[in-house]
Design goal:
With 182 residues, this protein is an alpha+beta fold. It is built from 7 helices and 11 strands. It has one domain: Orthogonal Bundle (Arc Repressor Mutant, subunit A). α3 crosses α4 and α4 packs across α5.
């Protein structure tokens, strides 16, 4: 595998986890592949990443991060605001945006932009792509091969070095495609 490809975001301190509990709320650690099989999501270590980057471990940041982990639906900041509002009634939308900005800066979360829509957030920090359903608007994680063969298949001009990517595939999810056939 290309050294530049392997030395980018793959070296981050992270852990693959299964389901775990915190404060009575279930936190998933699995995503479903296109074939329906569960595979582990690589999540960053919250306490370690925040501390190493000089950020305080605040209740608001933790709640926003936990809300993001609870569902693998790539929520917007507004979606997360409404999820966290039940637990922290005095939190503002601005605080949620600030928390998300910090989580992105520390490498715990990826910001995903699909077309001209609002930014969405993904706790899966391994290199991967996204599938955007053009009918229902949902966003799903998809695995992308991490190999020399894949990089060379892109047809990049000589001298280009891949250090990461943002790939979004557009189409219909299984639910929407079955509705379209009916």
């Amino acid at each position: 595998m290309d050294k530049a490809l392997t030395s980018s975001k793959f070296a981050r301190s992270s852990t693959a986890i299964g389901a775990r509990k915190r404060g009575g709320r279930s936190q998933h650690g699995f995503q479903t592949s296109a074939k329906g099989a569960a595979s582990p999501i690589i999540l960053g270590d919250y306490n370690q990443n925040m501390s190493q980057n000089g950020f305080r471990l605040t209740k608001q940041r933790r709640e926003v991060y936990d809300a993001l982990l609870e569902q693998s639906d790539h929520p917007t900041a507004t979606d997360l605001f409404f999820r966290v509002k039940d637990r922290l009634p005095h939190i503002s939308l601005a605080t949620v945006y600030n928390c998300l900005e910090t989580l992105v800066l520390t490498g715990l979360v990826k910001q995903v932009t699909v077309e001209r829509g609002p930014a969405r957030y993904c706790p899966n920090i391994q290199e991967h792509g996204h599938f955007h359903c053009t009918a229902c608007g949902r966003v799903f994680d998809v695995s992308i091969p991490q190999s020399e063969k894949f990089v060379s298949s892109l047809g990049l001009p000589a001298g280009f070095v891949v250090t990461g990517y943002d790939l979004t595939i557009h189409g219909l999810c299984p639910v929407c495609s079955s509705k379209a056939k009916s």
